[in-house]
Amino acid sequence: MTNADSVSGFEPVDLGEGLVLEPFSSRYQESFLECVARSFDCRPALERWLHLNFENPVGRSLILIVRDGERVVAGITHLRRRLSAFGRIYDVGHGMDAMTDPDYRLKGLRRSLTEALLRLDEEAGISLVCGVANDQVLASNLKYSGQAEVSGFPPIMVKPTRPASAAWRLLTRGLSSLVTDTATASGLAAPPDCAAAGPLALTDKERRRVERELATGRWVPAHFDDAHARLYANHIDAGRVCFMSDAASLRWRYAKTERTFYLQRDIVAGSTLLASMVARPATLRGVAFLVIMEFVWLEGERAQAMRLIDDAVQLGRSLRTHALSLLAMPSTAARELAAELGFRMVPKFLVGKGLHLTIGKTDLSGPPDPRLLEGDNWAYSWGNGFVL
Q1: Which helix (H) or strand (E) holds 74?
Q2: What is the pLDDT of residues 218-231, one digit of tens each?
Q3: Are 210 and 202 in contact, with CB atoms under 8 Å apart?
Q4: CB–CB of 275/300 below 8 Å?
């Protein structure tokens, strides 16, 4: 497995001290994942990593590494995506899992990798680069990639499914870890910091409850066909800045894994898919959520969207979750409807390490179109990321 064809002509760069910067190849696959594990203190899954980077219908990821002999000590990945914005379709490199082995930090490797990968992006026809960064990574994204921060992010909304239980759990187990980011030290599950270690695994209890729910037939395993592609291309918020989702991309994103399971509920009239939702349970920092990964409906089908939220509340209760969680950007129809139905915004200071959506131009010729930096222009879901 290699992405050499997509970066043909790239000559290895001698960085001195025995360090070499070059494209990833299968020869260094095991060492690459070992570096992921050391850099993020996680357990990356080979099957998951190969699926994300080499089975993406948009194209193989661009991956550069720095090695010391046979040991990979740093790496950077741009996963290929397409972004619809203001009447244009952009080829985008979604930054993921940028890493440096703890023993090799403060040597400028991140900067060397970023500059080289941006040049490769341009050669591959990728004009924009984006990513979701925590507080620790944000500064390097802004400094080395020429990216700027999108306003209004992260727009996390929650709605209790069992209000009394949710409030008690937040107060006794979840709230302190949300604020201080000591979830892992406290033995509370937190989302992985890298896509290679995702998606967040179901607990045994969650898995058993999902299996019982599937047996009822009310929700089904996530699946996508041409009807879903039409809905996602024409849903009520589709005219905003958003990542494009055809059937192949949706099947790739929501492929079943041993770690998790995605549930889906569709509302159909005749041959027309009116509304659809994808959700999964996830226990985050001691609080059990039903995470709404996707929530789309056609113009004029607001009643069907409300019906899906009611169905999600019932599913959340059946799965014994404490609350629903939805990501809904400012000014979207999803945000407006969710607020009307009792969802509330999570204050930004409660979002652990912080989350920041950034975007920039690969040619570093200046800031991106300022309209891309306005959160009011975006539609963005939990499903646009890769850790859940």
Answers
A1: strand 71-85
A2: 999 999 999 999 99
A3: yes
A4: no
105 vs 204: CA distance, rounded Å: 38
Cβ atoms of 261 and 280 within 8 Å: the answer is yes
Same-domain pairing of 165 and 40: no
Q: How far apart are CA 326 and CA 157, in angstroms?
A: 5
The predicted-structure confidence for 3-57, as pLDDT tens digits, reads as follows 444 466 688 999 999 999 999 999 999 999 999 999 998 889 899 999 999 999 9
Cα–Cα distance measured from residue 73 to residue 31, given in angstroms and rounded to the nearest whole number = 8
112 and 173 share a domain? no
Distance of CA 346 to the CA centre of its chain: 18
Dist CA 88 CA 378 (whole Å): 14
CA angle, 52 as apex, 256 and 46 as ends, to 5°? 80
196 and 108 in a single domain? The answer is no
Residue 343's nearest CA partner among 319, 313, 315 is 313
pTM (2 d.p.):
0.92
Same domain, 191 and 102: no
